[in-house]
Amino acid sequence: NSGERDRTHDVVKRIQQQTGVTAAPHLTCVDATADELRQIARDYWDSGIRRIVALRGDLPKGVEKTDMYASDLVALLKEVHDFDISVAAYPEKHPEAPNAQFDLLNLKRKAEAGASEAITQFFFDTGVFLRFRDRAAAAGIDLDIVPGILPVTNYQTLVKFAGFTNVHVPGWLHKLYEGLDADDQTTRNLLGANIAMEQVKVLAKEGVKHFHFYTLNRSELSYAICHMLGVKPQNAG
């Protein structure tokens, strides 16, 4: 709703202006009018924000279609100011897409509208990502495709989440978490960190330079993974 959206925008602006961290707010178009989105974009620009993650957003219950899609939002943002825009990509296709080719063409529309980067849905088979990257390049999609990495801390929650996001959970992942006590969070965190690190290492060897971590409001694990990979705060020794 608009009240929650306003609170989010206020927090984003405070991060940008008070912390020295480059803010990249997520902006959805399914719950706002074009005029509201233009005003939000102008406000962000005036606050020093230059990067936006442009998403359609989840459709409300009972709604099957929307008047505006992510590609429309990208075009609208580019009309307001020359933002650096990231969009979503789906190596295993969006759950609503009838097939992978349809989904790829949708990504191409977002690129042609002015996006410069695509952040993928999380995945566990690195081959899935690499094949998707190749298909995107073959389709003439000129985007930096950034893999989404999800450190797993709760396997059962992951299975539910993967079910409605169309993400395949491989058998080897099930075997790793099989037999763990429900309250053994330490071991689960160690497994999650190791799996994510291995994903990053394999993808880095394939030329991937940027990664997007889905922290799910649990930043400690992602911070530890980055530290073990040698990525540290700029002011760290």
User: Could you say which overall geometry the principal axes of the C-alpha atoms support?
Assistant: globular
* N- and C-termini, Cα separation: 43 Å
**Number of beta-strand segments:** 6
Main sheet characteristics: 6 strands, parallel
Low-confidence stretches: none
- Physical arrangement of strands within the biggest beta sheet: 1-2-3-4-5-6
Oligomer: single chain
Task: Please state the average pLDDT score.
Answer: 90
Structural class: alpha/beta
Question: What's the helical proportion of residues?
Answer: 40-55%
- The radius of gyration computed from the alpha-carbon positions, rounded to a whole number of angstroms, is 19 Å
Number of helices: 9
Which percent range describes the beta-strand content?
Answer: 5-15%
Order of helical and strand elements:
HEHEHEHEHEHHHEH
Structure, explained:
It is a single chain. The protein has 9 helices and 6 strands. With 237 residues, the protein is α/β, with parallel strands linked by helices. It has helices spanning 2-18, 34-46, 70-80, 100-113, 126-138, 155-165, 171-177, 185-205, 219-228; strands spanning 26-28, 51-55, 84-89, 117-122, 144-149, 212-213. A 6-stranded parallel β-sheet has the order 1-2-3-4-5-6, with helices on one face. Helices cover 49% and strands 12% of the residues. Helix 8 crosses helix 9. Strand 2, helix 3 and strand 3 (84-89) form a beta-alpha-beta unit.
In short:
By secondary structure, the protein is of the alpha/beta class. It has helices at residues 2-18, 34-46, 70-80, 100-113, 126-138, 155-165, 171-177, 185-205, 219-228; strands at residues 26-28, 51-55, 84-89, 117-122, 144-149, 212-213. Strand 1 (26-28), helix 2 and strand 2 form a beta-alpha-beta unit.
